[in-house]
Amino acid sequence: MTSAKSVIVGTAGHIDHGKTSLVKALTGMDADRLEEEKRRGITIDLGFASLELPMPAGGDVLRLGFVDVPGHERFVRNMLAGIGGIDVVLLVVAANEGIMPQTREHLDICRLLGIRRGITVLTKSDLVDAETLDVVRMEVEEFLRGTFLDATQAPVIAVSTVTGAGIAELKLTLARVASQALAKDAAAFVRLPIDRVFTMKGFGTVVTGTLITGTIAAAGSQSELGVFPALAGSPQRVRVRGVQVHGGSAAEARAGERTALNLAGVSVEQLARGMMLATPDALVASQRIDARLHLLSSAKPLKHRAKVHFHAYAGEQIAEVYVQGDVKCVVPGGKALVQLRLAAPVLLLPGDHFILRQFSPMVTIGGGEVVDAHPLAKSAKSAVSSKGASKGASKAEAARWREILASGSAEEKLGARIARRGRDGLSLAQAVAETGLRREPLEQLAATLVEACSAVRTNDLFLDAQEFKQLAEEMLKTVWAFHAANPLVAGMGRGELEEKLRAAREVFAFTLAALVRAGKLGQTGEAVHVAGRSVQMKDDETEARAEIERGFASAGLQVPALKEVFAGLKVDLVRAQKIVTLMLRQKTLVKVSEELVFHGKALEELRARVLGLKSTAGSAQTSPVRLDVARFKELTGVSRKYAIPLLEWLDRERVTRRVGDARELL
Questions:
Q1: What CATH architecture does domain 191-278 belong to?
Q2: Has domain 4-179 been given CATH number 3.30.420.40?
């Protein structure tokens, strides 16, 4: 059984140079679908056709999907809507006219979009003699020298759609060139840019596009997609009811195929060219994009914050160009890292290509490649670390991260994404949204970083190893400083420590746990302290503590007020309060109410005395033993001032339970 390799072929070239006729001669299909196109004899919008050819080596079948684009300069925006996903370009030049303005612009667009394979086709060869055809061929070869269509690397074939001359040769050459195209990733997340939306009677909403990545089926988990950009909140979900590939019904569509989808859950009015269908709950649209820009030599200098028309796949919108670094202008023919701030969100990923056209008049001025579709905004509320993470990053460090994201290895790029998040860390879900990679390959990349001691991991969160080291050092330093300033306090409150360090909660917890495991810090309840360190008291403080304990121990249940105790001590009020706080934490003293503090032993004796009422009542008594305020006062010899708070404490300790004005022993 033979398998099929899908390749998208796009046409490019000046108006009336025979692009549509060429597609018809190759496929037998008329790509002009609009009545106005047929009447005027020009292609206004995108046209589509398909063709199957045998692979040059035999066995497999090449399934070619053709995207026929308009050549008129007024319809370049339509041309851009279709050329974004192509693998092979047919640059069409009419032998009777040669190189024309749109020939140049279309070639520039193909180069800027990173297209690497193509064939130059000299059409209308029947309209010129052999000598003229040779001259045109030389002119074209000179024009293409140094490009991906250089005649030393890419074929130039003369054809006539009238006589059929050269068509057979073109098919053979097309099969050879197309077979070399890299296969698109059918296992990746789905991304289908919408280039047409219409209603079909009996079916409802239908969209078409070139499936960039992933696999779409009309059943199961692969049938649910999200519509990007989301107008508000999460992307709208739609369900695929039917799939067509290259004009025929199919069980599924795979990356690299011209695809039509019959959708449920959405109306035609809710969709438009330029939107994208994608795997839900994985990818996120963005309005800021860091990119590597190449400005054409024919363009004017591009100033910082210049407005341009931004084209990516089937979408178009206004963008503002922020030139990165100290230079605030991109010179003609120059390259630069820029940030594009878009009028509306788009779903793009690193490696995607785009085209920029001048704001007015609309001519192509450049294009480039997405480096980061989710750059961190300077105003983002990210943690600020000593190394300058996120918001606090130095210009030099931010520039270094951009360079790594632009040209680093896969591991280096992930490492840069983790590092720039600082103490917030990078979650696996964020890494998926930023890179477009599935969890499995990201897990492998992250494991390499962890093994190389470049990152640490806690659950699904990754932290830069240097950031972790500095956070741990700062945590130790902060706790030591707290001890120095508060020698009478057992430890620093965990919440206070977390607030001072300003790290993400999971990062903070991970770092604290690591220091506890290493024997550098300890935690008692909510108090964090240096491991092995106890409260450090001066002689007068030790004496005051002993005096406080003697006073409460001897008072039994008729304790004095704290202010009376403080008044008789030799230490100042602040230190006296800290000593009492320490004794409360150590449970030497127990706070029963805002005003009353008792010695722990006195309360334990009270508990035993109250529970002893059960044995006094005898085993024959079946009803609960009751204790009212009067009986409690008689039992303990205390006044009402102490009786009520103590009874409430017994309730909290589940020794008694209040029933009306009395208590029952539990």
A1: Beta Barrel (2.40)
A2: no
What does CATH list as the number for 554-666?
A: 1.10.10.10
Indicate the pTM of the whole model: 0.76
Can you tell me the distance from the alpha carbon of 120 to that of 90, in angstroms, rounded to the nearest whole number? 6
- Rounded alpha-carbon distances, angstroms, from residue 172 to 88, 133, 149, 316, 638: 14, 21, 18, 36, 108
Tell how strand 662-665 and strand 656-659 pair up. antiparallel
Domain with CATH 3.40.50.300 in the chain: 4-179
**Ranges of residues in the chain whose predicted pLDDT is under 50:** 1, 32-45, 71-75, 379-392
Contact by Cβ (8 Å): 552, 461: no
Residue-wise pLDDT tens digits, 585-612: 778 899 998 889 999 999 999 999 998 8
Spell out the CATH class of 286-372. Answer: mainly beta
DSSP letter for 546, please: H
Q: What letter does residue 594 receive in the DSSP assignment?
A: S
- Torsion angles phi and psi, residue 249, rounded to 5: -60, 145
Q: Where in the chain is the domain with CATH 2.40.30.10?
A: 191-278, 286-372
Fill in the amino acid letter for 438.
R
Only one residue has tokens 């820029």, namely: 338
pLDDT at residue 53 in the model: 92
The token pair at 419 is: 């590092």
